[in-house]
Amino acid sequence: MSQLRIGITIGLHHVAETLWNNGIKQNAVFLAEALRNCRNVVSAVLVNTTAIAITQALPWDLRRWPTLSFDDAKDNIDVLIELGGQIDAAQTEYLKRRGVRVVSYCCGFEYVHAMEAVLFGKQAWGEHLFVNQRYDDIWVIPQVSHISQSYFEVLRRRKARVVPFIWSPVFLDACTQDLPHAGQYRSRTGPRRLSVMEPNIDVVKFCLYPAMIAELAYRLRPYDIALLQVTNADQIARNNVDFIALMNQFDIVRQHKAVFLGRHGTPGFLARYTDIVVSHQWENPLNYFYLEVCWQGYPLVHNATLCADLGYYYRGHDVEEGARRLIEAIDTHDGQSESYRAHQRAVIQRFLPDNHEVVATYESLLEQVISNPVC
């Protein structure tokens, strides 16, 4: 079996940039943690592809997650996994001359991003688009494969394969260590505080359907709902006349039981202000947010098909079913909150970096990459 040195790219923009504020960088860390459990991996380091210097100012443990510049890493890796930072044609050529395999790890909704960039004037790359044609393999996580895999394959001129999604509570634990009860759900009396925390930056995760679920539940059980809180929505709630007009159709808004807030970190907002989370996705059937909410034991009303066994699942865009699941959470969650959290964590085990199937799959993927000639 091979003994491989792995580099995983990130793209830093500040000398003291945190890993906590960016899902892509966390993905790189989770992948590194999983690969270190592979029998054919001797090391896995993060490789920064920007000009930002790597110093002790970085606020993470560089012994646990070694981080190097591309120049410092390029002669000491056997496989470079391009994940959070792109290498250019000259860097690719250098690696290829050394016999290094280059893998593209795709964890974003690139087709959606491209579509919105073109249709809505959100310039993404302009005339400077560089599409690397020399990948030895393309790995795509499951939640983006159904909508973006063909996009990757056509532009990069090779077939892609779907690989296991990985998540770890390591960052969540760090963020919650100083919160009461480590930020985990605790039962409370009285009407429920509902939270909707969609990013509201594209069509994939938008707050309208969760708000509609809350509205239907409120019409049925107004005295059981204290407040609907919609984060990442202060700008549209103040400035977007269409959004304002829609929200003003809702009883929960007209009766002053809804607030539209700015950005908040998930763990702290859950611990301080939340009893139930209501979510909706469109072609985004698995992400960190769902796992964070459920790991901490909060009831999650959601429609994410790749984790339908978590939380309180409803199908598709069926807001009536979503409202029924929300009312079910209101009525039953506190009576089972301890067993619920334990079950959620047991289910999430399949995504952890030390899961046997996850590790075995990545071992096999790496062996396949190494066994083929360099592209």
UniProtKB/TrEMBL annotation:
It comes from the Bacteria. It holds the Pfam family DUF2827. This is DUF2827 domain-containing protein. It comes from Paraburkholderia terricola. The lineage of its organism: Bacteria, Pseudomonadati, Pseudomonadota, Betaproteobacteria, Burkholderiales.
